[in-house]
Fold this sequence. Notes:
elongated, alpha+beta, 3 helices
Amino acid sequence: xxxxxxxxxxxxxxxxxxxxxxxxxxxxxxxxxxxxxxxxxxxxxxxxxxxxxxxxxxxxxxxxxxxxxxxxxxxxxxxxxxxxxxxxxxxxxxxxxxxxxxxxxxxxxxxxxxxxxxxxxxxxxxxx
Length: 128
């Protein structure tokens, strides 16, 4: 047992999660409002026990972080794991995203578009 999480152990690859990694999406509401969602995917563990120099850790799981942009500025963010993450992925599969009770239509940016968006907003790309 270690005092820090097992860095090399990753959750099983999930293509739906990987499709969101370091990617932007243009969002549109039925009333015409526009926003951008930028997704970051990471891995997390929960400390399940231990004391001082040793710890035991949960199995690794995916964590989705989102940056919410309106008018070119970050106005909100969120972190999702577990069942909440699965619900978001199901919504993405249907082409929608529900945020603060509002449903938005999702149009994913291309890889080049996401890269340009990262550069424009000085967002560092995360790769495990």
